[in-house]
Amino acid sequence: MLIPHPLLGLRDSQEFTYLGDASLMNRPDPAGPSAEAEFCDYVFLRDNPAGVHRELWFHEQGDRSWLVVTRNTLTHEILGAELARNLPARGAE
Amino acid sequence: MTRLIGGLIDRTAPLSFSFNGKTYQGFKGDTLASALLANGVQLVGRSFKYHRPRGIFTSGSEEPNALVTLHSGARTEPNTRATVTELFDGLEASSQNHIGPLERDLLAINDRLAPLFAAGFYYKTFMWPRAFWEKLYEPAIRKAAGLGALSTLPDPDTYDKGFLHCDLLVIGGGAAGLTAALTAGRAGASVILADEDFRFGGRLLAESDLLDDSWPSEWVDRTCAELASLPNVRLMPRTTVFGTYDHGIFGAVERVSDHLPPSDEAVRQTLWRITAKRSVLAAGAIERHIPFQDNDRPGIMLAGAMRTYVNRWASAPTRNADDQVAIFTNGDGGHRTALDLLGKGVPVLGVIDTRPDAPVFGKYKVFAGATVTGTKGRLGLQAIQIRQNGQSTWLEAGALGVAGGWNPNVHLASHHRGRPVWDEDRLAFLPPKDGPKGMFPAGAAAGNGATSVALADGMRTAQQALAELGTTAGNIPLPRVTDTPDTQAAYWHVPTTKRAWVDFQNDVTVKDIALAHKENMRPVEHLKRWTTLGMATDQGKTANISALAVMAELTGATIPETGTTIFRPPYTGVSLSVLGGGNTGRHFRPYRLTPTHAWAKVQGAAFTEVGPWMRAQYFPRDGETHWRQTVDREVLSVRKDVGLCDVTTLGKIDVQGPDAAEFLNRVYANTMATLKVGMVRYGLMLREDGHLFDDGTCARLADDHFVVTTTTANAGAVYRHMEFAHQCLWPDLDVQMISTTDAWAQIAVAGPKSRQLLQRIVDGFDLSNEAFPFMACAALTVCGGLRARLFRISFSGELAYEIAVPARYGHALMERLMTLGKDLGVTPYGSEALAVLRIEKGHAAGAELNGQTTAQMLGLGKMVSAKKDSIGAVMSRREGLAQDGRRLVGLLPLEPQSQIPAGSHLFTQGAAQTMQSDQGWVTSSCYSPHLGSYIALGYLENGHDRIGEVITAANPLEGQSFAAKVVSAHFIDPEGGRLRD
Amino acid sequence: MKFSGIKVLKEALTGHKGWKPLWRTPDPKPAYDIIIVGGGGHGLATAYHLAATFGITNIAVLEKGWLGSGNIGRNTTIIRSNYLLPGNQPFYEFSMKLWESQEQDLNFNSMVSQRSIINLAHSDAQRDAYRRRGNAMHLSGADAELLSREQLREMVPFLNFDNARFPIKAGLLQRRAGTARHDGVAWGYARAADMRGVDLIQNCEVTGFDITDGRVTGVQTTRGAIKAGKVGVAVAGSSSRVMAMAGMRLPIESHVLQAFVSEGLKPLIPGVITFGAGHFYVSQSDKGGLVFGGDIDGYNSYAQRGNLPVVEDVAEGGMALMPMIGRARLLRSWGGIMDMSMDGSPIIDRTPLDGLYLNAGWCYGGFKATPASGYCFAHLLATDTPHETATAYRLDRFHRGYVIDEKGVGAQPNLH
Q1: CA pair distance B181, B285, nearest whole angstrom
Q2: Could you name the CATH architecture of B158-285+408-468?
Q3: For B6-39, how does the pLDDT look when each residue is reduced to its tens digit (9 = 90+)?
Q4: Which burial class, exposed, middle or buried, applies to C214 when counting CB atoms under 10 A from its CB (0-12, 13-18, 19+)?
Q5: Which of A86, B152, B879, C285 is the most buried (most CB within 10 A)?
Q6: Would the CB atoms of A46 and C307 count as touching at under 8 Å?
Q7: pLDDT for the residue B589
Q8: What is the tally of structural domains in chain A?
Q9: What Cα–Cα distance (Å) separates residue B60 from each residue in B301, B546, B575, B911, C334?
């Protein structure tokens, strides 16, 4: 696969390490009243869609950016990639 | 050798080769198959199940029958298709899968027993008695099964890997592929033209239609010459594109020197990963046959293959020059063969055409509305039975060509799981509409196989593909062709009560399909799996479509309703050697070497693999005959004097920025923000699920500057995790980090005399306990100005330091310390002594931090701060983790000289040893020279409350059991006085 | 009809006229006591055990494609019970015992071949980990032996002992492990279930659940609505998709695993061998093909096909471990979709919805579990209590902190 790195252009996916669903950016509030349950949902549960999936890839053998790649899990077609650090608000939603 | 006139062989370059020990002659330009035919050899192999005699059936990579073993010794290459083996001088081939001579294969008994071996028979028997399966039935089956044999020696050849990029990849260099490549090449696009054959031209080399009034090969040569002259075109003959992967990536194998006598120098094959913006699939089509009774004899081949042998290779398909050749066809294609045979002077018995209104194109007999209903000839065809108008006649024939229509080669277009589309007019499956993005089928692969149509289709398709890239490609002059479109009538098999083969290699007959139907194995995937249809080395290239047509007939469904099985890579077999690309033996993975590696080598160190690293394991001295002697000495030297150990492999991460302290506070379970500048703190990192992730030290060199160490194993993972925490969770924190594992050489200087030794290299730095206490750190210079970092940390429990210098000075620093420390008894120690020292001290390492453990289990539960948020803190408090009572303890065997091996399980003394009563396990174990006893660490249920208890450590795997006393994990200096002095 | 050597002989002599369909092709009835969603190995085994072991025969298996088209149709056929953790090992040993009598139980030769498995260790630490595991196997009543380098050299001399990047130090051997003919397993269960009255319904895709007051009462399918007392879902690879129709999110990601087979070769590799320093495991089928695999591709996928890097990685592992296979050719590769769970272990449990039961999360180890998975899921469906070897496979273990993490990599499915 080729991943369209926003800064570096098309890069071979072998340069990257995959983590998983981009919802892992939405870390719950550790001080919330039901923090433990929320953390468990956050860590363990996934939508796991057959279709468009936003997911985290780390450019390990590259510029060490974490990217949010939008990819179709049925076709592997990639619809876009963004720098994770540039994305707005995260945390408990 | 008998040759016909013409052909594309170089008669000035005779080659000699051997088959089954007998020497034959051929010419440059021959394949093994064409040369065998020219020598009158029809019988080349045996079928898989019935061991039926088999000949050459095709002229290409779809060959089901003519599989031979090439070479001998370590280069032995089984299951090689004679039809695509380019002849070279000295080629050595032999037939395979028979016992005794090929002509008298003892396993041919299977053919006599064929009624027993119907589809799926083995699922219904061999079940009694139970124990006989492994002992009797299966060994017999395995011995009979398989095709060729490997040598069992390592492959001696060299392989390579490469990457290519282009605008347009053209797969197949026949009529359509050549015009596609030329169209794109002239337009200036970067083009790769790959063909599995050693000569471009595809069917143009096999047919006799004139191009611009001359032989097609002349146009092919001119076109290839122009393509070769274009700098933007790369011609890749002998290159099979075997798989279509994501985003325009293709796998291809170039057989670089398979066509040359074996050599120890040349690369044999290269694996190419080709990234193409667009591709043209011009992979041609594969002719299908028409099953009829006893249709598998040597001498029966595809009619199109027959044309190839006659036209391209001047090889007649018969054993003797005056043998008659018959053709069986359901369309005009068979008639082409008759005409070409006659043109070459080969006697033609006639064309048996299933069509009652069969046309006549020349001076040969036509049996209209007729079929072939039987054959004779055990080792080679001798006669055929023709049925016409209700009459059956036996006629002598030395070869029979069969033409059942063409199947477009949709393989590569179907690798993305798109389903081929049935075309009733062409009686063929065409490439899927939802094929791989950017792929354009052309020519015969798209169902446009007539020469004139294919030539135009290639050009048009290339223009379309390039238009998507914004390139306008003009027309190229196409040659004039005088072909007429072939017609055919659907005819799938000749009914018979005997066997009519569909899949030759795996011996699947029409009867087997009927049986599958009867037993309700009707879905095409069941058909395939029940009968093994299409599961042979040719993947059913000449069989599958015919088989599903037969099944469709039986079920009454249409062919498209019946559907195809799934096309999967590779298109043809690819050697495992080339897929491995030469990354074998010691080249399997790169070595990471420490800065003192060369130095340690000179010292005679033994090395060990630690992940990708090679680490000095121990440094034997003269007279030491066992590794334990060496390690004991090294350990005692550290405890008594001073030792040096390269600890560069530990991960190092430099963390800087105004928010560095806050950031580290969040990634470490314990508090880091309160760490004073110039001090180091031991740190625990948890995964977000609350389990232990890694441990290490965190040194604060300045308010906004930390250096973090990780375990060797987790260096990469921790760094990735920290970048995740920063970029994905807390990008607002003003902090940056970088891995500096390879930038700094780090040497542990450990032992009571370490301060004394270090004092000799620091540049006026006060190392006194007051000025530089336990857990202090500093940036300083050593050896007269060399930048260094010094950490007073201890893995051994002794007074100890770790000193880091830029990696390129690591070797020199080690030598300097060794020289300056001679009078102090300085001793280098390796990873083995390092492990003993840390077990004696009760420090956790990989075996204790195996990803299944918690801070609590280590006895460090209190380190997980409840006062702040950190990764893993919340989930570390879950019920299952909080209630886990296992704790790290020390274990002393009551017999001091008995080693309790790591991996033993722990039990209350006297308890039954079952999974339910299992109370823990031994993580680490070693001999402690300091205590004069073996010692061990382990996790034990309620371990902290059981100090002094004698328990059982059991190793039933190796028949061992030990009584051991539970003690503190800190075998040495539990108060920590030594490291604070 | 009973299959036997005598029957085969008789049919051979009489022109194979007497064979009957292996199973019927029934139309779905309006209602069943139990519906199993998924006609793969686990679904079929569940149906068989419901009928044969628990005497419940008014059941249907709904399969969206053809029987056995789940991952039982595409795998590397390994059976073994060499696990470490108490949540797993007794279950897999139970499965092994069921394998050992499977052909006789089902009257179908699924070619269970106890050819052994060797897990190779390439470092002291790895050997110690295998010792811990081998001991756990002993504790569960399974067989295990720890082999030295010398013993291994004797047993499998073709491995790379002398020129290896990662030297072979030891091996964990389980002699009772081996392989089975994967399709045969599916067919054996299907036929045996059908014979006991189970309706096996192909080309019937479930498109929704009927849920009333927190209770599942039936399913909607491409062949109409079917009512059910209980519904068991066994659709590994598609679990998230199917359970989403019931409003559930699972601790599962779908990943693609590629597997490979070489062209047929004369017998070469005696049992199953796994490389401990690279991603490669291999056995040789009765037909002669080397059947091998490696790691999952590593990204979420439902595409049932993989990419080239893993193909190369697996081949590199194979060549590093046994350089004699270099001149064999890869014949076919395929990609299957795995339910990769968050701890690498499966789920056999009730769900928050009454009447809905889940069998999922088999990662890429589901094949060997087929008999026990079927047995235990049937046990749960029939009795509403978990089988004693499957008590740890609860859905709430993640939240409560009782994960069964053999590899110790945490909630990262692509590392399990």
Answers
A1: 19
A2: 3-Layer(bba) Sandwich (3.50)
A3: 999 999 999 999 999 999 999 999 999 999 999 9
A4: exposed
A5: C285
A6: no
A7: 95
A8: 1
A9: 12, 18, 18, 70, 24
Nearest to B957 among C7, C20, C135 (CB): C135
pLDDT score of B145: 86
> Residue B540: pLDDT band by 50, 70, 90 thresholds?
very high
Give B805's pLDDT tier (boundaries 50, 70, 90): very high
Contact A40 C342 (CB under 8 A): no
Note whether C415 contacts B: Cβ–Cβ < 8 A.
no
Domains of chain C: total: 2
Q: Of A30, A56, A77, which is closest to B873 when you measure between CB atoms?
A: A30
**C83, C114, C126, C135, best to mutate vs chain B, most B CBs in 10 Å:** C135
pLDDT per position as a tens digit, B31-74: 999 999 999 999 999 999 999 999 999 999 999 999 999 999 99
The residues in C 77-106 lying below 8 A from B, measured between CB atoms, are 86, 89-90, 101, 103-104
Percent of chain B with pLDDT over 70: 100
C8 touches chain B (CB under 8 A): yes
| pLDDT attached to residue A89 | 58
- Contact (CB<8Å) B416/A75: yes
B850 → closest Cβ in C11, C110, C408: C408
Please name which of C127, C359, C117, C327 lies closest in space to residue C238, comparing C-alpha atoms: C359
Determine the topology of domain B651-739 in CATH.
Alpha-Beta Plaits (3.30.70)
pLDDT tens per residue across span B845-896: 999 999 999 999 999 999 999 999 999 999 999 999 999 999 999 999 999 9
pLDDT at residue A93 greater than cutoff 70: no
Q: What is the CATH number of the domain that holds C89?
A: 3.50.50.60
What is the DSSP secondary structure assignment for residue B785, as one 8-state letter? T
- Chain B: touching chains (3 or more CB pairs < 8 Å): A, C
Which listed CATH number (3.20.20.60, 3.50.50.60, 3.40.50.300, 3.40.50.970) goes with B294-403+495-562?
A: 3.50.50.60
* Residue A43 included in any domain: yes
Domain that holds residue C171: 117-179+253-340
Select the residue of B248, B723, B729 nearest A25 (Cβ to Cβ): B729
The domain locations on chain B are: 10-116, 158-285+408-468, 294-403+495-562, 596-649+743-829, 651-739, 839-865+882-980
Q: Which residue of A has its CA nearest to C304?
A: A74
Tell whether C316 is within 8 A of chain A (Cβ): no
**In angstroms, rounded to a whole number, what is the distance separating the alpha carbons of residues C357 and C389?**
17
Q: Give the domain B10-116 fold.
A: Ubiquitin-like (UB roll) (3.10.20)
- Domain C-terminal end among C313, C340, C367: C340
Q: Given this model, what pLDDT does residue A92 score?
A: 37
Q: What CATH number is given to the structural domain containing C259?
A: 3.30.9.10
Task: Check: CB of residue C84 under 8 Å from CB of residue C345.
Answer: no
Q: For the purposes of burial, counting CB atoms within 10 Å of the CB of C86, is it exposed (0-12), middle (13-18) or buried (19 or more)?
A: middle
- Residue C411, chain A, CB below 8 Å: the answer is yes
| Banded model confidence at residue A91, pLDDT cuts 50, 70, 90 | very low
- Whole-model pTM: value is 0.97
Indicate whether B729 pLDDT > 90: yes
Within a 10 A sphere around the Cβ of B897, how many other Cβ atoms? Answer: 9
C163 and C203 inside one domain: no
Distance in angstroms (rounded) separating the CA atoms of residues B967 and B946: 8
List own/partner pairs for B252-258 with CB under 8 A and 24 or more apart. B252/B194, B253/B574, B253/B575, B253/B578, B256/B160, B258/B86
The parent domain of residue A16 ranges over 2-86
Q: How many CB pairs under 8 A join B and C?
A: 362
From the list B708, B746, B800, B812, the residue with the least C-alpha distance to B594 is B746
CA distance B341 to chain C (A): 35
Q: Is residue A10 part of a domain?
A: yes
Is residue C308 within 8 angstroms of chain A, CB to CB?
A: no
C254 to chain A, closest Cα gap in Å: 7
* Positions of chain C with pLDDT lower than 70, given as ranges: none
In this predicted structure, the answer to whether residue A90 has a pLDDT above a threshold of 70 is no
Q: Does C224 touch chain B (CB under 8 A)?
A: no
Task: Give the integer Cα–Cα distance in Å for B571 and B194.
Answer: 14
| Domain at A13, CATH number | 3.30.2270.10
Q: How is domain B839-865+882-980 classified at the architecture level of CATH?
A: Beta Barrel (2.40)
Q: Of C298, C398, C412, which has the smallest distance from its Cβ to A40's Cβ?
A: C398
